Amino acid sequence: MTSKTAYNVAVVGATGAVGQKIMEILEKKDLPINELKLLSSKRSAGSKLTFKNKEIIVEEAVPESFSGIDIALFSAGGSVSKKLAPEAVKHGAVVVDNTSAFRMDENVPLVVPEVNESDIKSHNGIIANPNCSTIQMVAALKPIQDAYGLSRVIVSTYQAVSGAGNQASEELEKQTEQYLNGEEMTAEILPVKGDKKHTPIAFNALPQIDVFQDNGYTFEEMKMINETKKIMHLPELPVAATCVRLPFFTSHAESVYVDVEKDGLTVKDIWKVLEEADGVILEDDPATQTYPTPLSASDKEEVFVGRVRKDPDLDKGFHLWVVSDNLVKGAAWNTIQIAERLIKNNWF
Amino acid sequence: MTSKTAYNVAVVGATGAVGQKIMEILEKKDLPINELKLLSSKRSAGSKLTFKNKEIIVEEAVPESFSGIDIALFSAGGSVSKKLAPEAVKHGAVVVDNTSAFRMDENVPLVVPEVNESDIKSHNGIIANPNCSTIQMVAALKPIQDAYGLSRVIVSTYQAVSGAGNQASEELEKQTEQYLNGEEMTAEILPVKGDKKHTPIAFNALPQIDVFQDNGYTFEEMKMINETKKIMHLPELPVAATCVRLPFFTSHAESVYVDVEKDGLTVKDIWKVLEEADGVILEDDPATQTYPTPLSASDKEEVFVGRVRKDPDLDKGFHLWVVSDNLVKGAAWNTIQIAERLIKNNWF
């Protein structure tokens, strides 16, 4: 379409954890918005939310909601996206979808702007926002791949409860109080809302994020494996993942081990490319105990990397500790960045 | 020495987290104890502790304390062991040392009974108990190595605060209350007592356990790397480790990735050797969301393994999730097991 000066934007899932964060970031950014439409399930419709000092009534998302919308940001779960994203496209909107519904669809680009911005161009109405834990990892891997090549990636994650939604955060808070009061902890949400069994997360670690697949991996682990290959255009790169939920509210951390292709590299060589990388901040100084943590990375847009170490046994092995806010860069901010680049390049 | 019917046993560091756990386990076990002597620093001397319904006054540990002692269990920190373990040996005791003081000494066997019991035999008065995070990992790796061979180990840990002592557990509790009350969290102990900087652990993850070494690794990481090679008698095995402290009180979890030597193995092949392994319990059923967690493993003696998965990309790669109580199998119980085997085999 012809470049506009301002765009009609819809947020689908406006009352959820990611929807709220999208509005919070849109407040601070200069995305040229003409009208902001807030959409939700029937249950949450009617809520009033404030955007730039203006009250907006949340409406139920139906196919007709997208009439006149230029960009629709979806964060209301996979089933909502599957049903309504194609309707939004039919009504002329470009969808940035933050669910897993279309990520592995070969007709849908899966984008982290610092890594594969130009993939946006090839969209057919839908652009997928990757899984939170994938986004921060590929942001850190991309500069290493470009400079030195990667031949293997093995990641173990340390993931915040907010990735499972607001109810999971409330559950952590409730269980923590129960534990400190000597009461039995009650679990109804985690590890996965609606799954067969629930286990306390407070003062615990749950090696299950999302439901199990037939191959014994969780869906979260398979997302990290498959999405990383797609975003980086490295279908043959071996990626191994273990995903673990932990008792903190915000930001995911990842212990990432890579084999590089080039030999003889030092920690300084890895530091150099990370320091120069777009969207990445290096926080790595053992002498002053400097490294990122979930608390230090919270509410920030960047991906933080520390604890870079060379394997003492193997010349091509390196460790990284990668931390980022799962609701910001891992969801809302990456979604908005995609919309920004779409507008900037007029790739409608 | 000639086999005795009962032994004089000293616990050095009786008032600490591990010392307390040693007494708790000794209460339940049938180690043939004649006299139990409880020793501590000058500061804690005079405390009264109860063992098998008898009150025992804790005495200050000095060289003469070990006169008449057959077995001395040390858990009072590396500097105490360095000073007093040789004195205990001079007085005729066999020392089982739970600190890092002698672990890498080539004249000191480093023992996990399920893995290398017969190494006890070669002691010269001191037997070292490995680091908690190492013990549980080698217990799970040993049956795989024996059956299929290992060519590479990459581990990321999820470690409980109690590994840093009682004060660290108190700090987690205090910070948790501060956070829930909306107060600023105060940090004085973790990540490492006496280190330059302290960072809150509550609702956070700290990628530092023990002090940093010149190579950028923490001492905990180097312990896992070096101790694993020594215990398994595999000096050439590449072992890579990242150690992370997390906000739970008890039990360490580990995401362990291994390359095996044999090709064509399945998850069932790995399950089989773990099921038959001494001291290991397999808890692995994705269909019923069955896997060990720090809470489920607490106060138990075994090493629990779940989430066994074959790498979808690489035939020889497998994931394991290994959980065990860091104060029980990771410290007190392994120490007592060594003493039991010493007695059973009369390897004094």
Kindly describe this structure.
The structure is a homodimer of 348-residue chains. Chain A is of the alpha/beta class and 348 residues long. Chain A has two domains: 7-130 and 331-344, Rossmann fold, CATH 3.40.50; 134-326, Dihydrodipicolinate Reductase, domain 2 (2-Layer Sandwich), CATH 3.30.360.10. Helix content of chain A is 30%, strand content 22%. The first copy, chain A, has nine helices and 14 strands. Chain A has helices at residues 17-28, 78-90, 113-116, 132-148, 166-180, 219-231, 267-276, 294-297, 328-344; strands at 7-12, 33-40, 48-51, 54-57, 59-60, 71-74, 94-97, 126-128, 150-158, 239-242, 252-260, 280-282, 303-310, 317-324. A six-stranded parallel β-sheet of chain A has the order 5-2-1-6-7-8, sandwiched between helices. In chain A, helix 4 crosses helix 7 (267-276) and helix 4 packs across helix 9. The first copy, chain A, is globular. The N and C termini of chain A lie close together (6 Å). The relative contact order of chain A is 0.15. The model of chain A has no long low-confidence stretch (mean pLDDT 97). Chains A, B: Keywords: Amino-acid biosynthesis, Diaminopimelate biosynthesis, Lysine biosynthesis, Methionine biosynthesis, NADP, Oxidoreductase, Threonine biosynthesis.
